[in-house]
Write a structure and sequence with these properties.
Length: 556
């Protein structure tokens, strides 16, 4: 509604009041609008009667007359244009009213012909960034974050399990390998009567069959509510393990010459196996976990004994979290008490630093106030401990944004980039290198700044960055937020080979954010991460000693 009000030049005071309401609701402690009456909503500080009425209508009816009126006078395609990265309502208004652009298709054509660059307030650079944003969006059509579809997919499988004629059922393909982005969900079903099962599938409203693309041995279609493809393979019980192995592993995994030029695909063609363990044993190897079956390094891992991969239960603490001191939803106390209730031994609080004014970054006085509160809470919550941290912005020249005496007051520092993301590879790499070389940097936060399916990361030389972290004993974050999952799992194995510890961090801005830790563990496992190489798998005493050693480094 705010975007549309700005687009149609509504009263600026009204727009500000709506934005204030959004901020209150997003950052309010335990605010839940579900089930509240208009009168109850008005009790929330900053929410007046008119906005309370809007909130109530949106929650209970899915719309509001004001929203309906805004949508009625807005071409449908403009709603898509408003979602293009880098285009705010003011720029979209110029494109629409002065250039007649009412869809992303027309916008792309205008950019490609050079017309957008000539418009007031745009230019060649903006035009090129729009082209890149549209291309990025198009390339990701039909793709979904694993975390966003996981529950829906699991619900479907539980429904299918109850159908008559369904024997064994399991995931195969990219979902089984826990890929961070999925575009096809594949299932394997053992069924003696395929026709019966296929007929039963018709009764499931959550999926739609594509008859033309299906066959007696394969059901093809999609989910009803989202643009996500679904393929269901059928086999017999005696062939289930062989088919499962063939359909989980990537092509590179299946054809890798693991033993005397024998591949997994070749041994599966010779006989039937009643377990995955038996099939891999025929290659002289332990069972390789599904998430490793990418044809990357897993056979080397298995031949060396298959060291146990990281499990969620191995994690002893949660580092890189935000509170209401900066842009978090919950207080420091709430974040700490919830962390403790989950069974963790420690919490690392790392609110935004002062340069991040957009996120309520902490000035020096606020840092000192937070650290005093941490001291008090630590007395109360012991033996649980809150470590004093900060997510320090890496400035454009690579420096951190506090003087040395303030940096020295923290137990640990997560150094991250949040601005000037358009640097070329050489400058972006040099910027990170300087931050890594800073003796106060403990962890390099989300190394590329990417947002999966939304924004490409800034270009860096991963090998150079990882090698520098090895040299300066800086850990690298696997940011567990499903939109980030950065460091990418494809670089985890290299980091481990170089002796670099990784820290699985949720970047939690609310207590619920701790649940994202599991996604960080999943991508860590894909890269071969073990508890021994995970910073926050250290117990409280171990990580206290680690932080003290790191701080001693900064004093030299």
């Amino acid at each position: 509604m705010i975007k549309l009000m700005e687009l149609h030049d509504e009263n600026s005071f009204k727009i500000r009041s709506y934005q204030t309401a959004v901020n209150i609701l997003e950052r309010g402690e335990d605010i839940n609008v579900i089930g509240k009456s208009i009168a109850e909503l008005q009790q929330i500080s900053g929410i007046g009667k008119s906005i309370a009425e809007v909130i109530f209508a949106l929650e209970n009816e899915g719309s509001h007359t004001s929203l309906g009126e805004l949508l009625e006078k807005t071409p449908t395609g403009i709603l898509e244009v408003l979602e293009v990265k880098g285009l705010g309502p003011k720029k979209v208004k110029i494109l629409w009213q002065e250039m007649g652009i009412t869809s992303t298709h027309e916008l792309l054509e205008a950019c490609q012909s050079g017309q957008v660059a000539k418009a007031k307030g745009f230019g060649e650079k903006t035009q090129e960034s729009i082209i890149q944003a549209l291309a990025f969006k198009a390339s990701n059509s039909g793709k979904w974050l694993y975390a966003d579809v996981e529950d829906q997919v699991l619900d479907l499988v539980n429904t299918i399990k109850r159908l008559e004629g369904v024997g064994q059922i399991d995931f195969v393909g990219e979902f089984a390998r826990k890929m961070e982005i999925v575009e096809v969900i594949e299932l394997l079903i053992a069924a003696e009567d395929r026709v019966l099962v296929i007929k039963s599938l018709e009764a499931i409203e959550a999926i739609n069959r594509d008859v033309k693309r299906s066959s007696p041995y394969k059901w093809r279609g999609s989910f009803s509510s989202i643009d996500l493809q679904l393929v269901i393979h059928f086999t017999q019980k005696k062939d289930f393990i062989n088919e499962k192995l063939l359909r989980i592993g990537s092509k590179a995994h299946l054809i890798y010459p693991a033993k005397e030029n024998q591949t997994l695909a070749s041994i599966l063609s010779k006989e039937k196996y009643d377990s995955e363990e038996a099939a891999y044993q025929a290659l002289g190897l332990p069972r390789i976990p599904e998430e490793l079956r990418e044809g990357f390094f897993e056979f080397e891992w298995a031949s060396e004994g298959g060291e146990k991969l990281l499990e969620e239960d191995d994690l002893k603490g949660i580092l890189h979290n935000h509170s209401t001191y900066s842009d978090g939803k919950h207080t420091l106390r709430q974040m700490a008490e919830h962390c403790k209730s989950l069974g963790y031994e420690y919490l690392g609080i790392s609110d935004h630093s002062r340069t991040a004014s957009y996120a309520g970054g902490l000035d020096i006085e606020k840092v000192q106030k937070q650290q005093r509160e941490i001291d008090e809470l630590n007395k109360e919550l012991a033996p649980f401990k809150i470590f004093k941290g900060i997510e320090s912005d890496i400035l454009t020249d690579g420096s951190l944004d506090y003087p040395e005496d303030v940096l020295a007051s923290f137990d640990f520092i997560v150094s991250s980039i949040h601005s000037a993301l358009s640097m070329d590879r050489k400058r972006a790499t040099a910027r990170l290198l300087k931050a890594i070389e800073n003796p106060y940097t403990t962890i390099l936060g989300h190394p590329t700044g990417r947002l999966l399916l939304r924004r490409e990361g800034y270009p860096v030389d991963h090998k150079v960055i990882i090698d520098a972290c090895a040299t300066h004993n800086v850990a690298i974050e696997i940011n567990a937020n499903p939109w980030r999952l950065d460091l990418d799992w494809r670089w985890v194995h290299y980091a481990l080979k170089q002796g670099v510890k990784l820290s699985v961090n949720p970047d939690a801005h609310a207590m619920e954010g701790y649940a994202d830790m599991r996604y960080g563990v999943l991508v860590g496992r894909k890269g071969g991460l073990t508890s021994a190489m995970t910073l926050n798998a250290m117990n409280l005493q171990e990580i206290e000693q680690y932080f003290e050693k790191q701080k001693a480094k900064s004093k030299k």
